Amino acid sequence: IAAMADKRDLIAVEERPLKRSHLAGPVVWWVRNDLRLEDNPVARLAVGEAFADGRACAPVFVFDPRFIDVSPYGRVTDPDFKKSIKTRRPISFSARKTCALRARFWLQCVRALQKDLASQGSGLTVCLGKPEEVLSSLPSGSEVMCQAEPVSIEQTDVEDFVEEALKKSGGALRREWGAMSLYQRGDLPFRIKDQMPGSYSGLGTALGWKDIWTNTEQWEGATPVRAPVAAPAKFPDLPAGGLTLPGAIPEAVLADDAAALRHLGYSAEEIAHAMKAQLPAGGESAARAHFQTWLAEKADSDGGRAKMAASWDLPVSETADKDGHDALQWANLSQPDGWCNISHYLAVGCISAREMFSRASEHKNFTGVAHRLMWREFHRLNAIHWHRRIAWLQGPGRVERPWTTDPVIVAAWKQGKTGVPYIDACMRELHETGWLAYKGRKTAGFFLVFDLGVDWRVGAFHYEDELLDYDFAMNYGNWVTVAKVDKPRNWGESEVNPEEKHDEMRWKLSAEKTNDPTGAYIRKWVPELRSVEDRFIHTPWGMKEEDMATCGCTIGKDYPASIVGALDLNISNPSSDAHPFAAEREEAKGEAIA
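^ thats the sequence. predicted structure below, dont judge the formating
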């Protein structure tokens, strides 16, 4: 009898109409920094949900003015400082969050995705406005899916705002990890919040790499990097009649770079500067073609070790095998054009780290690719771990140090008018192209912090504005490292000595002098010095009156006098890979012992 009753109950349950757990409105793929179709789990999820439930699917991209306009340094999503700590100090500097040059590249990537979607019978609605205001106008019952960006507290705030707005309008937000990172969060063998390894080496060990600094060998049971997923083969229909959203950018405006930049609020001067620059092609196809070319030309090459005469200021100087091949390609980090030069595509999601990892895995220089992607992963996880502290003046290390924000000094650095040729070349290249190679970024940053004594956040905010490949985690992660505020000093470890750091700046500039003795890089970006003799190109303060007359460049008139005075970059043995000041450092040690 009991069995028969159980069977009747089961039949009753089976016949009872199921409550639909999904929303009735369209599925909306809120495109963010995942501007691609291949290896895009969020796009696949949105498409799958729409097909499964017979709903329409609408991709939407929103240019948020908070991340474009000029603003004081700080959390643009909290302009009244309601979420700030009580000890927050006043901020006296501001900048754009995105310069016109990067906005132009961004526009091209958005248009490329729009074209790719159109070829699949779908489309992309592009708007200007706060996402919470734009997306709250979606039809009731809309389900919005997006790739979360937990590395940025500001972007997380925006997600919170959108979630709250959608609840009020009868919709919902679904945040997904996506494929912005190399590893899937759920696969990590540690909790990011309270178990994050404290160093790059520690992260490699935790994930199962035998020696992340030198090779790609992994221990059995190492955390896997998931394989890329395919793009959706088919897209659902768009909502009948299309979407009518506030801030929708007219197609004619979006199709024209200059018109679109005006629409986004850039001045005529900013637009003119952006339009004269030669930009890399935007979009997923361009990113993949760029990487394919790199794989064909450099992924198996020995790459120019001989071109790097000095490697004193690189984290690893010598990782070549017995045949002379350096899979990590450190020599390329000493060159102005870098190595893969694909970071601008990674930053907006035109290609994923997982796809790069997978496609490079069979090539000779895979170790170098994995190494760089793992550094990116470290910074992303570290940004999530430290949250807002990564953008504090004291940094995650809570380091107190006197700083300046002197506008005259800051302007000289930003404009490339410090009177130190290599620094000026770096800052001018950054402004003109939105690009600066690894060593240039770190050396210019080091100079700002330790030779000029400027608040490191001024530099980080400037890079945020100017860099074509700006990425919150990479930018601020590298800046706190350069400024030595990334972690508390260990017991027994001395505090930062400005004088020692000033000496270190001389080593860095001496490395540049050794690697580029004729100053080709400087001559390219600092035209005032193009006729200066090779022996003075890195040290123009060494010229006498007759030298200046000969080259037609008077220091203090045609080119600024050094803002930090004359720097001694003497190199006794240019062919040596030893620090140029090794001897005097040893001598100083001896004096200290004596």
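Residues 4-14, 572-594 have pLDDT under 50 and may be disordered.
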